[in-house]
Each structure stands twice: as structure tokens, then as C-alpha cells.
Amino acid sequence: MKPELFKELRKILNEIAHGAKPPEPNALMSRLAELGLSIPAAAVPKLVPAILNAFAARAGLYEVPRPLLEVLGNLLQGRSANVVCDPWAGLGAVLAVVREVTQAPKAFAFTENEAQFILGRILVGDAKWQLGDPLELLNSMSADLDVVASILPFGAKSDRSVVLPGIDGTPVELRDDFGNLILAAAAARLSNEGVGFFVVLPSFFFSQRSVLRQLPVLGFSVEAALALPSGSFAPYTNIETFLVVVRKNSTSRMFVAQLSSDTNTNLQILANFKEGKEGGRLELGRFIDPLSFKGLDSIRLAERLHQIGSRFGTTAVRLEELATVINLGRFGDDFKFPQQENAIFIPLIGISNVVESLEDFTLKPQNYAQVAIDPTRSNARFVAGFLNSEFGKEIRELSKSGAVIPKLNKQSLKDLTVFVPDLPMQKTILEIEARIAAEQNTFLGLQNELGVFHRELWTSPRSAPDVNQRLAAFSSRLSGNLKRHAAERLDQWFETLPFPLASILRAWQATSSQDFKTKHEHLLHFFEASAEFVSVIFLSAFSSNEALFAAQKQKMLESMRRQNLSFQRATFGTWKLVVEYLGKQTRQLLSGDKDARALCADIFSDPSLALPETLSGVGLAAILSTTNKMRNDWSGHGGVVGQEEAQLRNEQLLSEVQKLREAMAEMWTKVQLIHALHCRPRRGVFENEVAVLIGSNSEFLTETRSMATWLDVERLYLCNEDSGRALKLLPLIQVGPTPPSAKNACYFFNRLERDGSARFISYHFIDRPELRGRFDEAMEAIRMFTEF
Q: N or C end of the chain: smaller count of CB under 10 Å?
């Protein structure tokens, strides 16, 4: 069954649920015939009630991810089969692909759900559908199975057992979740050359009672575990899932990789698997011991630990090796941690800072662990500093367990990895850290003094002469060198920004220092472009997961309509709203469980989460809101803007630039805007030659990067240099020579015209400030945002 057919059935369900009448039989037959489904007239009366019951909330029915169907088809390419089966068939989408590729004359579909049984027989009529317990139905089969493929039930607990013969003939009793029991029972029905494809949960690998640990005794092994893209079954669930390949053989190696929504990436993964070679990137494949597999994150962490170790010049140690005592907090008002020297307090939940005193707690005591550090090995302040670093937080996050609220326990605390150089080096690092803190305090003191001036000026206008005199004295204390240094550092920050933003600030810099009217207009353009640039990143990330975006799009559009905003005629306000709305959704993912954070990392193509964490910060949204209000207030001022007013506006906007610099921190040194020039697969990876679109220079530097994906030469991407992955940006920002003989220029989508064309504008290229034409991909993106 095609994904388009599933969507059509959902659409019919929604039409009925929202008060529309059930479709007229002939119209329903015509709608489904357009999608390749011919329904006998006699079956139509059963179809609508079957749709209603099959898609009921308790049915647990979800759309089968397109990447899964494509991967299954490629894995089975060239393979023939006589008998194929899906023991947990749903509506038969998986079985339909298996049968189509293998051309099997016999196909069996099992389900416990009567509505799915009725609907499945209509949708996949060339399979033999059976209603009942899949374990009993598998046990009653007489024929061996050449291919079994199934999305097993998620999290279905069971108190049943299955008894299967071991390779020596001894009965083996299995107790596990219902889905894993189905896997074992189905594998037992495989022919000697048969193969099973099953979608399983992570517990299949780490649960102590998992059938995985008994498969070798039964004569089976898992040859591959391919992680499906995060959120593949959203909005039904965000839980991590794997496609495992099971055969009748014995192997000590299991191929693991990360599937994606990109077909080229998946084809390279399957080529590496079939050829028995590892990819240059973790996502493209590694071979490991099946019983040691704890997920791709654990492998990724091990590889990162090796990299970090070389930077620190020391090997990693477990926290247990540094600790003399580990005390877990407990519930109750009477509980108090004992006095310990050289101790730190580590939060067991969330990702708040490790602290050194009870006064710094931001959580209840039961959510902390007290760890006393051996002073001959390390200073507690150093350990706290490491665990609060970006990498330390990642280690803490990956060490948590628990499905509802991920949490550190005593054993995972002991196993936390820490890098500690020798004591003299620790002392040096801590001394420098103290000096940095001292300079920060000086800077905050100066800020507070300016704040006092500002409050006095506006609470007591008569104090203006006194404030002015004190301000002059304050300014004289700041040397000219210091002011020049601040300006130079700001200029250097400009050159770390993506070209579409840096080019506007370059135009601001190049404007005469006395032309404040033009200068402040450049800064307004900069903030409007920043709002659109960040919006495009959010929209690109969320729309990369169709089910996730569908759940958010309607609410976002309703909010736009209330404010009389639209994508068709986009304004600063449009982009500000997108940043606010999708920024909030991103924060919810980041504050969610491990699966929610994994989904966030996947849609932004950034395992470090630096990109979504920075862009979703409330500070950035507040800056865009402030500058949007400035623009609206000033555009409503009909008079001529004088020199003094223009200078004030320029200073106000420059202050917001400084705030934006603080909000974005060093993100753009980690995440870069790139444009692919060409690509070639080599040694199991994709070698992409890319232009790096950073800074205001329109002559872009080129690099060759080994990545897990084949980049489209007609699109822009954001790439975390360490990840090997990239977020494809929607074509609402165009960078290139215009005309072809000219220098590179950047254009932002502005609106759809009445004649059906699209208008793009440039904020820095005065020779050709706008483009109009049939930008088909951009227009399709706008339609995607606005259509349900």
C-alpha cells in the first residue's frame, strides 16, 4: 500500500470526523482509483466503517515511513521468494512491498484487529489475511517462510512464553515483550535461506530478558540493526526504532548504521552492508558485537571521547576512580547531605549545572548526588567545570536511563567519563578561569553603572546635567584603545556569520560614518533578514519530518491569520511569528525525554544540538520582537528623519546587534552555511566539494568534506563540521552570481505576485535589488506551508 493511499484514508477519516457526510460510493471509488486501488462495488459499503474502526485511537495504526519501505525494497532487490508473511500486518503496507519485489505467489497477513482485517483485505487483496493471535497463527503454519517482514507492536508487555527448539533439539523457553516473541516465532518459521526484517525498539538490544540473547541458541543471528530516522512514527510516537535483519546462521558481527530520509545516503548504507565494509562515517556503518550494542549514541560518544582525549592530552577516567564517596539525595524535609570536603553535587535529572554548594541548588535535594573527589587526583571545581562544559553535558545526557524521565543512577554516575589532566595543569586552568570571572565582574560593574545613569535620567530629568557630567567622566575612563578593540571584535564577529547576514553588515560598515539614515536602514534590513534566515532554518528542520510538521502547521497558520499575516506576502512580522512559534516547539523537544531530544537532533541534522538550542533561545526571539517593533514604530512616523534621530536609531539597533551576538554566542563557528559544488562516493562515504558561505567576502572558499549524505548542488545547507550531516534549507534564500558574470549576491523570498511569479529581494546588492520569476521550488515550499 502506497503512503499516498494511507494519507487519502486519513483524509477521508478527517472529513467524516469534522461533520462531513461519508463519501458517496462512486466518488469514493474514483478517489481511490486515482491512487491505483480498484475496489469491487460490493466491498464499498464495508469500506467507510472499516476506515473509522481501523484508524480508531486504540487501534495503534500509523503511517509506515517511506524510508523504511524504500530500504526494504532495496534489501530485497533481486531476491525471489515463494512464501512471504507479515505477522503483525496493520493494513498490509509492508507486505505489499515485499510481495511486489519478490513476486512471491503466496503472501500471508496476520492481524488481531477486525477492522484492519476487513480494510486490509480490500487494500491488499492478493494476500491471504488471517484474523487471530499471530503466535498461534505462526505455530499452525505448515509452509516455511522465505521472507518475513513486520513492524512489531511497540511496548506491548506479555506474560506469555514461547517454546522453540534449539539447534541441539533442546526446547528453549522465551519470555519477552509480545513483539519480540512474534519475532522469535516468525524467525523459527524461516526456510534455510530465509530472511526476516523486523522493526524493534531499543529494549530489544539492552533488556536482559530480550530474545536477542537466545537467538544464537536457536540458530539465528542479527546481521544488521539500522536505526530509522528519529520521529519516523510521529505523531504516534517519537520512540527510537531499528530495522533488524535476522537470518539462520551464526555471526559475531552486526552491522549498525543510521538511516535517513535521503535516498542516496540509504543506498550507500545498504551498499556498505552488502559489501561487508564500514562507512567512513558512523552513520554509514560500523560492525560491532550484537550483545554490546547500546545504540548509536554510545558508539558516537566513544569516538568523541577519543577526539577529546587528544585535545586534553590525557586518557579518560571513570568518575568512580576519582570519587571517595557517592551519596544519592533522598526525599523528605529531614534529609541532609553529610559534610564532605572537595565535593560536588551532580543533578540526576535535566541538564542543569553541577554545583559545589547546597546554596546553588536549582532542584530539590532528592534530584542530586553528592560526589566527594579525591584531592590527590583532582580539584572538585575542575571536575564540576568539565561536567558543565558542552561535552560534559553530552556525556551526562547519554548516560541517563529511563523511558519516562531519563535519570542518572549510582552506577551510571560511577561510569561517567571525565578527562582530568595532572594537578598543575588543573591549577593553571582554574586560575585562568578565575581571571575570566574577575574580568566579567568588572564588565558587569560597568554595565550596572550605565544602568544607574539611565534610570536617573528618566526618573529625574532635572539630573540630566549631573548625569551628563558623570557620563563624560565614565567615558574618559574607557581608553580609546578599549573602544577600538570592542569595535574590531564586533567586526570580527561579523565575519563568522553566514554570508546572507554578513553581507548586509558589510554594507552597514561601508556606509559613511555620518550617514546615519542609511546606516540604521541597513541594520533594520539585517534584523529582518535575520528573522527570515532563522525562520527558514526552523521551517526546513520541521518540514523534514512530514508527520511532525503536519501536527504544528495548522496552529501556526491560525496564529498568523489572527495577526493578518501570511507566507504569500511575507513581512518581518511573519518571520518573527515563525521564530516564536517553532522556537517554542523546539524548546519543548529539547526539554523532553531522550527520544524527543534525538528527534530534535535529527531534524536539525545536528547531534550536538548547538543549532536548535541557540536558535530557540527566548533571548533571540525577544531581540527580533524588539527590532520588529522599532521598524513598525519608525515606519509609521511620516516626517523626515533628522540626523540626530537617525543617529539614535543607529545606536539603538547597534545595541540589539550586540545582544544578538551574545544570544548566538559562538554557534556560527561550529555550524556553517555551505553550497555543494559536486560529489563523488568514495570509500564508503560521500566526498562533497563545497563552497563555505561564511563572512562578507563573496569569493567563497572551497573545501572537500567526507559526509554521510550526497548534497544537492542546487540547494544550501547548514552543516556542523564534526557531524558529517547537513540540514537542507528550503529554497527561500538564493545565493549566486546575478547575472552569471557578476559577483555572488544573496536574495531573500519576499512575496508571491498575482501573476504567479515569486519576488526575491537583496539587502546588499544595489546593482540588482530584486529578482522576479518562476521559482518553482520556492513556490512549492510556500504552498506546502499553507495547504493542509
A: C
> Cβ of 492: how many Cβ atoms within 10 Å?
10
739 prior amide bond cis, ω within 30: yes
- What distance in Å separates the CA atoms of residue 440 and residue 433, rounded to the nearest whole number? 11
Let me know if 647 is exposed, middle or buried by CB neighbors in 10 A (0-12, 13-18, 19+).
middle
Is the pLDDT at 403 greater than 80, yes or no? no
Contact 372, 432 (CB under 8 A): no
User: What predicted TM-score, i.e. pTM, was given to this entire model?
Assistant: 0.79
Q: For residue 453, what is its C-alpha cell? A: 545613569
Helical residues (DSSP H) of 325-463, grouped into ranges:
380-388, 390-398, 410-414, 423-459
Contact predicate 738/768, CB 8 Å: yes
CA distance 631 to 516: 15
Classify 618 in phi/psi space as left (phi over 0), alpha (psi -120 to 50) or beta: alpha
pLDDT of res. 57: 45
Q: What is the DSSP string of 704-758?
A: EEEESS---TTSEEEEETTTS--EEPPTTEEEEESSTTS-EEEEEEEEE-TTS-E
As a whole number of angstroms, the distance between CA 222 and CA 220 comes to 7
The residues with which 78 forms a beta bridge, in sequence order, are none
DSSP 77: T
Average pLDDT for the chain: 86
Helix (H, G, I), strand (E, B) or coil at 404: coil
Q: What is the pLDDT of residues 732-743, one digit of tens each?
A: 999 987 555 557
Other CB atoms within 10 A of residue 322 CB: 20
User: What's residue 645's pLDDT?
Assistant: 87
Cell of 148: 518475513
Residue 56 above 60 pLDDT? no
611-636 burial by CB neighbour count: b if 16+ within 10 A, else e? Answer: bbbbbbbeebbebbbbbbebbeeeee
CA distances from 575 to 343, 531, 591, 606 (A): 47, 5, 24, 23
User: Which region, left, alpha or beta, applies to residue 753 given φ > 0 means left and ψ of -120 to 50 means alpha?
Assistant: beta
pLDDT in tens, 76-106: 999 999 999 999 998 888 998 999 999 999 9
| pLDDT top residue among 345 and 298 | 345
